[in-house]
Amino acid sequence: MTEERAPSLHVPAPSIRPGDDPDFSHVSIPRAGEVDRPDPATPPEEMRDLAFSIIRVLNRKGEAVGPWASGLDSETLLQGLRDMMKLRIYDARMMTAQRQGKTSFYMQHLGEEAISCAFQRALRKGDMNFPTYRQAGLLIASGYPLVKMMNQVYSNDGDPVRGRQLPVFYSSKEHGFFSISGNLATQYPQAVGWAMAAAIKGDKRLAAAWIGDGSTAESDFHGALVFASTYKPPVILNIVNNQWAISTFQGIARGGAGTFAARGHGFGLPALRVDGNDYLAVHAAATWATERARADLGPTIIEFVTYRAGGHSTSDDPSAYRPKEEGTAWPLGDPILRLKTHLIALGVWSEERHTQAEAEIKAEVVAAQKEAEAIGTLHSGRRPTPRDMFEDVFAEMPPHLIRQRHEVGY
Amino acid sequence: MATEILMPALSPTMEEGTLAKWLVKEGDTVSSGDILAEIETDKATMEFEAVDEGTVGKILVAEGTEAVKVNTPIAVLLDEGESADDIETSSGGDATKSEQAPEPDKPAAQQPQAAPEIKAADTSPDWPEGTAMKQQTVREALRDAMAEEMRRDGDVYLMGEEVAEYQGAYKISQGLLDEFGPKRVIDTPITEHGFTGIAVGAAFGGLKPIVEFMTFNFAMQAIDQIINSAAKTLYMSGGQMGAPMVFRGANGAAARVGAQHSQDYAAWYMQIPGLKVAMPYSASDAKGLLKSAIRDPNPVVFLENEILYGQSFDVPDLDDYTVPFGKARIWREGTDVTIVSFGIGMRYALEAADKLADDGIDAEVIDLRTLRPMDTASILQSVKKTNRCVTVEEGWPQPSVGSYISSVIMQEAFDYLDAPVINCTGKDVPMPYAANLEKHALVTTEEVIEAVKKVTYK
C-alpha cells in the first residue's frame, strides 16, 4: 500500500528566469522531414503520434525535405517571404508610432509571422478566420490594404470600424477576418458555430479558429471542442503556442499534460503539432487540414509551436520575467530568415535581392503610413465623427439614438 | 401634438449656422431618418434628419437664412389629423429670433435639448377588429410561432438542451423535431456558454438561430457571449457582421426551485445597447412578439415564464400576425392610477385592478410587452391622465425596470404627478425555497393594492 502524505500544491514554473542562461533542452525537436504525412482520411486514432512530434519541412541547410514538403512553386514562396517581411516592417513602424504617441497600444508578431501568412495561402475566398491578437498576416496575405490597417490602429477618420475598437482589433468580412474579441477565446465556439452553419446550409466554406496557448484554459475552448467533436463541421482549430501568455509560461495553461495538440485526443479529433517558424510546414499542415474539411472529414486541431520574440504588447516588458536572450536561443529559428535561406538555396533569391526587397517594402509601408497619418492619428488630424458613434448599435437606428446624436451636436 | 423641429448643433461649440437648403416642403410626410434639410457652418455642411414621423406643417425659417441660432424652431411637424392652422409655436417661432444677441459663454451642448419631444403613443390595434379568436396556452403559442417562422424561413433553427427528442424541458418545442428534423431542431451538449457561442457563430455565418435556455438562470454562464459578442459585434465590426438571433426560455421564479433557479433578468438585459428585450404576458403577445423577434435583424432576449406556459388566452385565428416591438398594450383603461407591468407581473396588476374597482378606484393597466425598445410614450400619456403610477415586477428593486420607468416619468411628466411613483418589486433577498417564504419574497397583489391606495391617498 502506498504511504499516505499531506497533499502538496504543484505549481508549474518555467525552467529559467531572467539572469539564467536560455535553455530549451526540454523542447524536443525532431529533424525536418521525419514526421509521417498520413492520408487526410486516416482515422484520428491511427495518427495520434502527430500530436507529440513537430512537423517540419525546412532543415538547417534550408532544404525542403520529407513527406510534408509540398512542392510550392518558387513564385508562391517569394510572395510568402514578401508577406512576412511586410508584416514585420509594418509592425516595426507601428511600434515606433506607438512610442511617438500616435496610438495608445500595439501588439506585434515578431517571430510568429509565418503562421498567419502561410495559413492564409491555404484558404479560399469565402472562408472565415476567427482570429485573436497575432494573426494580422491573414489580412496582409489576403491583400487587405495596409493603410486601412493603419487607420484602424490610429483610430482616425479612415478607420473601417469607426473608432470603436482597440488598435489591432481589425475586422473585415470581405477578407475573411472576423472581428477580434478582447474577451479571450469567445471566437473559438463562434468559429465552430459558423462552420456548423456552413454545414447546415451545405455551402463549401470553412472556418478557422485561432487561440493562444494561455487562452486554451478558457471554457470557450473546451465547449468549442465538444461541439467540433460532436457535429464535425468544417473547422480548423488552431492553437498558437508562443510559449508565453504575457508573463505566464505555457505550462500554467497546459499543466504536465502532453501537448496542447493532444487536448484534441479526448475529443476524438485529429491533432497536428507543427513548426510554426517554418513557412512550408505551416502551409502544408494548413493544406492537409483544409483537405479534410473540404472532404467532409471534420475538424482538425493544429498546434503551431513558436516563440513570442517580442513583448505581449506595448504595455509589456518581458525582461522582467524571462531572459533577454531567450528569443535568439529559440531552437526553431526565425521564420523570415529560414524561408530566405531556402529561397537562396533554390537559386531564386539572393542577399542583394533581399536587401532590395526590404527597401521596396519599407517604402511601401512608409507611403501607406504617410497616407494614414495625412488623415489623422489618435490625437491629431481627422478623428472619427461622433455622428457615427450612434450607428450599428442596432441594425436600424432607433429614435432615442437619433435624439442623443442630435444632443451631442450631430 | 405638433412637434417643433429645432435648429441642430453640428458640434458642441456651434451656436449658429446657415439653413442652406430645405429638402422637404410643407405638406410632405416624413419618417424617422429622412433628410429634412442641409445645415452649414463655416466648418462643415450636414444633412439634418427627422427623429419622428409626421407631416411637415410649416417651415418657419426659409432656406438661405444665415445665422440661425441653435435650438431655434425651424419647422413644425404635425401628427396625423392635425392641421397647419393649429400651429402655435412656443417660442415665437419666427426667423427673427435668430437675430437675438448670442450667449457666447453658453456652449450649444448645454442648451435645452435640441431634439423634438417623444412621439405620441401608438394605440392602433394589433390585428384587425372582428378577427376570430381561439383559446391557446402560452406554450402552444410559442411553439406555433417557432413552427410558422421555421416554415417561412429555412435559415431559422432551434438549438438547446432537450429541445429535440424530449421536445423541450417545458414542452415548448412539441412536434418540431418531427416536422423539421435533427438539422433544424438540435439537442446540444450541456454547456450554455458553449452552445451560445456556437449559435452566435452560426448567426454570423448566415443562419437565424433560436437558442432555448432551459431557464434564463443557466444563461448566466453564457452572458459573455450574449452581451460581449452577440450584442456588440455589429457595432465593433463597423456594421459588417451582426447576429440576427433569439435567446429564449423561462425567466423569473417558478415554484419551489430556490435561489439559483428563480431570478428575473428583465432589468439586466434591458440595459444593454444592441439587444432587444421582450417579456410577454399573454399567449397572443408571446406568439406575435416571438415571430417579430425571429424576423428581427438584431439579437433579441425573449423572457418567458414557466408559470404562464400553461395559462390560456385568446389568440387571433390568423395565418400570420406579428406584434411590433416598442408598443405597449393597454389591458384596462382607467382614470385614477396607471399600473405598469410586463410578463407575469401583469397577473398581480390585473388582479389588483379588479379588486380596486370594487373599492371605486379605476386603474389603467399597461402591459409593456417589450422592455427594449420600451413604449414610454404610452406610460407618459397615461400618467398625464391619471397623475399617479405604480410599477409591478418580480425582480429585485436595485435597479428595477420600475426604477427606470420612474426616472422617465420624473423627467418627462414631473408636473403631472400628484404622488411619488411606487415600484412594487420582489424582496431584496435571494429566493428562499420554503413555500411560505417564497410567497413573501415575490411581489403580491395585496402589495400592488396597497401601493395604489398610497398614491391615490385612499
From TrEMBL, chain A:
Its EC number is 1.2.4.4. It catalyses: N(6)-[(R)-lipoyl]-L-lysyl-[protein] + 3-methyl-2-oxobutanoate + H(+) = N(6)-[(R)-S(8)-2-methylpropanoyldihydrolipoyl]-L-lysyl-[protein] + CO2. Residues 6-45 form the 2-oxoisovalerate dehydrogenase E1 alpha subunit N-terminal domain. The keyword Oxidoreductase applies. InterPro entries: Alpha-ketoacid_DH_E1_comp, DH_E1, Oxoisoval_DH_suAlpha_N_dom, THDP-binding. Keywords: Oxidoreductase, Thiamine pyrophosphate. The branched-chain alpha-keto dehydrogenase complex catalyzes the overall conversion of alpha-keto acids to acyl-CoA and CO(2). It contains multiple copies of three enzymatic components: branched-chain alpha-keto acid decarboxylase (E1), lipoamide acyltransferase (E2) and lipoamide dehydrogenase (E3). This is 2-oxoisovalerate dehydrogenase subunit alpha. It comes from Arenibacterium halophilum.
Automatic annotation (TrEMBL), chain B:
It holds the Pfam family Biotin_lipoyl. Transmembrane segments: none annotated. Keywords: Lipoyl, Oxidoreductase, Pyruvate, Thiamine pyrophosphate. Its EC number is 1.2.4.1. It catalyses: N(6)-[(R)-lipoyl]-L-lysyl-[protein] + pyruvate + H(+) = N(6)-[(R)-S(8)-acetyldihydrolipoyl]-L-lysyl-[protein] + CO2. The keyword Oxidoreductase applies. CDD domains: lipoyl_domain, TPP_PYR_E1-PDHc-beta_like. This is Pyruvate dehydrogenase E1 component subunit beta. It comes from Arenibacterium halophilum. The lineage of its organism: Bacteria, Pseudomonadati, Pseudomonadota, Alphaproteobacteria, Rhodobacterales.
